[in-house]
Amino acid sequence: MQNVDVVVIGAGPAGTVAASYLKKQGYEVTILEKEKFPRFQIGESLLPCCMEHLEESGLLEAVKEKNFQKKTGAAFMRGEKRCEFFFSEQFTQGWTWTWQVKRSEFDMTLAQETARKGVDVHFECEVLSVECSADMQTIEYKDAEGAIHTIRSKFIIDSSGYGRVLPRLFDLSKPSSFTPRGAIFAHLEDINRTEKASQNIFVHSFDNNKSWIWAIPFSDGSTSVGIVGDKEKIIELAENDSQGYKDFIRTFEDLKGRFTDSALKFEPRHILGYSIGVKKMWGEGFVMSGNSTEFLDPIFSSGVTFATASGLLSAKMTHRHLQGENVDWKKDYEDVIQKGIDVFRSYVAGWYSGDFQTIVFAREIDSTFKNQICSVLAGYVWDQANPFVKKHDTILPTLAKVIKMKEKEVQQ
Ligand code: FAD
After folding, report:
1. Which of 248, 272, 296 is the endpoint of a domain?
2. How far apart are CA 340 and CA 14, in angstroms?
3. What total number of domains does the chain contain?
4. In this structure, is residue 85 part of a structural domain?
5. Where is the FAD-binding domain (predicted)?
């Protein structure tokens, strides 16, 4: 039976960042990945903060070579209203750009580079069961031929994303407090794209803050277009071979004909009820990272950045644990990751309640506030010097209230 230091479940961004970091520290690491890569994955717009995690785990240079579409900001729109954020105009010192990526290519690059560094990456190996104890973990998995294998490790990092291997096996999932929503999406030809539209993610709000569309441009001239809304709306758009989605994308007024004649690169896919939480992020012999922990909502493109942030921190804590240190997993891992998630939770809630939109679509927005909000949108949600991070739970409703009062006064 094979014995290694660490088994990582899943070769997405969380798993590859964790595995690469640990390999750098000299451990023997195996990744077990259920799918054959390249495989489709949703989550195509990155945030600047994740560049730091890619750099620290030694994966940044390999991604740079792929010349993915550069992303320098985010544009929010509601009817004729528009608010553009530039990552170069930020409160927190950090990266001012990132990429928009087809995840099949991005994740393949991360996995190949991780393997090149010496991590054993086994594709088409699905983890079926796990037995954990203080210092010996036993993992059973099935390979592409259906053969069952067992591998042992000192520690497990579960980065299985939507597969949620350990939350399922150990009954650790927790329902989300958000309304169950869904998304329907495809990649489209984008011949009408302007230079500006190539550098940004475009988000169009409609349906009284309940629904929105993303347009995420790729370097090959195609664009990912997704509609997010209540579960029932997405089911309706997906009926009859996604006719509702196709009609909507081609005729939605705010897109101004951008996709009217665009061919689809594949038939639309949809996903429902993705928001989910976790009772705890660690246990004896294991830790979870990325979407195995909590996923909130796609509105602020925070998923991959949380995957890389938690992948990296989980690896650092695993390193300390394997060095014989007494790691306080709750304080040094879970509370840190939870803090960042909670900041985004306030912004997601603020998006759908309308408070965030009241602020960004106001007649005027104070430039200091805008830069501070921009840092949240860039993923720097651990910067306690930023009042829009520190007071995340109160600042949006308070500011929105003030703006509404001022705008009422102007109207009178
Ligand atoms: P994943 O990327 O899901 O990787 C997990 C890997 O584990 C997979 O390859 C899977 O095959 C493997 N696995 C699963 N089960 C097993 C098993 N039993 N054994 C072995 N391997 C297994 N995020 C952004 O940053 N930007 C966006 O624009 C964005 N848009 C989104 C839009 C929608 C509609 C949704 C729902 C999410 C979006 N996200 C976005 C979130 C993003 O998809 C995830 O947060 C991100 O992919 C999480 O990365 P991960 O490494 O945790 O998991």
Report:
1. 272
2. 16
3. 3
4. no
5. 4-161
Whether 235 and 158 have beta carbons less than 8 Å apart is answered as no
Domain, as residue range, for 223: 181-272
**Confidence tier at 251 by pLDDT (50, 70, 90):** very high
Q: Please indicate, yes or no, whether residues 42 and 14 belong to a single structural domain of this protein.
A: yes
308 within 8 A of 13, measured Cβ to Cβ: yes
Residue 92 lies in a domain: no
Q: Within 6 Å (CB) of ligand 1, which residues are found?
A: 9-15, 32-35, 41-46, 126-127, 159-163, 165, 183, 226, 271, 274, 290-291, 295, 298, 301, 303-305, 307
Q: How far is residue 183 from each of residues 24, 210, 244, 297, 299, measured CA to CA in Å? A: 38, 12, 13, 10, 11
Helix (H, G, I), strand (E, B) or coil at 20: helix
Q: Round the average pLDDT of the chain to a whole number and report it.
A: 97
The ligand 1 atom at the shortest distance from the C-alpha of residue 32 is 20
Written as six digits, the tokens of 196 are 């500006």
Q: 130 with 193, same domain?
A: no
252-300 pLDDT, tens digit each: 999 999 999 999 999 999 999 999 999 999 999 999 999 999 999 999 9
Does residue 146 sit in the same domain as residue 235? no
Last residue of a domain, one of 317, 341, 365: 341
Task: Give the atom of ligand 1 at the shortest distance from the alpha carbon of 107.
Answer: 2
Distance from Cα 27 to the centre of ligand 1, integer Å: 25
pLDDT per residue over 152-188, tens digit each?
A: 999 999 999 999 999 999 999 999 989 999 999 999 9
| Ligand 1 atom, smallest distance to 162 CA | 3
